[in-house]
Fold these 3 entries.
Entry 1:
Amino acid sequence: MEGLDSFVAVGDSFTEGMDDPAPDGTYVGWADRLAAMISARQRGFRYANLAIRGKMLQEIVDEQVPLAASLKPKLVTLCGGGNDILVPGSDADALAEVYEIAVADLRAAGAEVLIFTGFDPKHTPLLRSLRGKIAIYNAHLWSVAQRYHCKVVDLWSMTVLHDRRAWSADRLHLSPEGHRRVALRAAEVLGFEPDEAWNTPWPPLVGEDWVTQRRHDLKWAREHVVPWIGRQLRGESMGDGLAPKRPELLPVCD
């Protein structure tokens, strides 16, 4: 992308960077990694990250999109709706309408918008039942991208992320290596030539027997899914009380 001198990332935990920990206790994530790649190639580059874990799509549109538009960046990355999709009874068609409003506002402000589709949960127990809803939502996102002339990072087609090493223990957030591969893919979509390929095959993985896999599945459900359901029932979010980690457009420091 020519003249990419400023980039604002908006969204939820995926864009904030969970679970890609930094030494200072914050998270790095694909967006920070992408910003570092661009900064190494573009003089005067500035970057902001407004994403906060747990945010629903309407919250992103209400709280983050206006601020992103006011910063007048060259590029805004937009990924949202994943937390909404997890809620029973949520409507992918209605979510897509909200998403389109955000894209329209950002494009009207003069920003290029990079859209991210949802992941394919085919290999994740309990979540694979959401494949149909995510596929419908993704189809809408592709249509929005066409209408507003946006580039798309198609996370659904990134089969390299089907490996469990791409995910943290909660199976909802990427591992550091998963974030790195998404950053490489995003850089490629933007027209950069990354030093590494995002789809490099993983080293061979020692398989587990069926009983061990089911034991791990039950442990995951007990430690991660049940607490998430509890937060939803109580109307709580992991992001309650948190501020964006990088609210201003600033140079990327090494």
Note: The longest strand covers residues 6-11.
Entry 2:
Amino acid sequence: MKLHGYFRSSASYRVRIALNLKGLSAEQLSYHLRKGEQRAPGYLAINPQGLVPTIQGEDGAILTQSLAIIEWLDEIHPEPPLLPKDPLRRAHVRAFAQAIACDIHPVQNLKVLARLRELGLSEEKVTEWAAWANREGLVACEKLIAHEDGPFCFGNAPTMADLCLVPQLANARRFGVDVAAFPRLLKAEAAAKELKAFADAAPERQPDAE
């Protein structure tokens, strides 16, 4: 199995956690996003979006989009499960994960920030934009699991929700967001970071970390 990604990419981070939880190994191929390596013709032939991550299975099958990859891994390697068996609980986990992966992350990612710079925004304003996107989304996420006992986002074991939350909190801190405002999210993060699978997937632990 091959994982095409980048150490600082939060979407790649999610997939690394999933692989670790499943006890799976993958050859990691790195693309420096700030240098535009993800837009090289060779990579675009694999992933026409020019985004990371992309995963290649043992049979050569190619999958893009982190949540699709995570659910695929969960289906072919069902233990430990990353989604609850109960249909309603599964929907809640998916909704939380998508709130991060579809609503928060895309509007503060590298492509959007680069476009804001092209439009003439100062670096200070670009950072403010990214912080706003994180803060607004995390306020909602805090409320989505406020009634959940935990310690993880949804119960006593990590789910796809936690795989999305931990990398996003790292992004929020990088943009100067005061995450102390989100005690329930921090509770889930703390529980996750006690697990080796999460710790080993952290950006600073990756071979391409700068």
Note: The longest helix spans residues 123-144.
Entry 3:
Amino acid sequence: MSSTSSIQNRGPLAPQREVGRQRVAELIDAAAAVIQERGFEAATMAEIAARAEAKIGSLYRFFPNKDAIADALMAHQAEILRTEYDAIHDRAADATPEELADILIDLLVKLHPQTRGFAALIDSRTDMTVVRQRFRAQTLAGVKTALTTCAPGLDDKEADDIAAVVLNNMKTMVGMATRDAPTSPGAPEQLRLMTRLYLAAKLAPARSL
């Protein structure tokens, strides 16, 4: 087996030093940008290395092939969501339903610059249905935990339903912010108000139980 084949067939290298972790983060960011612009299939290892201003050998050292980069991008996305929802859950216990509505409705808009590459990845690959479902489940679980932390008396089944409604509003807000969904200048604020009123109506009674 050639040395090139050996590199491409091994797993990704986990850096042990901070400088290596920083380089991996830069490579992942570069990969996300290239995939967002060109799609996963059209993106090349050379383009990713060039975008990161790295030598191609440095890219192959950490990521032996594009599938390894895709896996790293998915893991990075999962960690971003985990970190954001942990912070939201810490705030939810002391937040009013209206305050929680504002936090949630802005979340995906806030994360959009960091998640465009991941979105392009799952949109450009036909084998990503399971991945898409897994991340939707992670997002729904994060929203539900925020709701039940804010309103501990909330019925579990109702929390599932409310989380689904709120997530759809969050995604609509992203579409409005990026002009991918029909909108008008005042529509985002109307969506924000609608979400505030909805959570106030649904969570306030459960907060007093």
Note: Residues 1-7 have pLDDT under 50 and may be disordered.
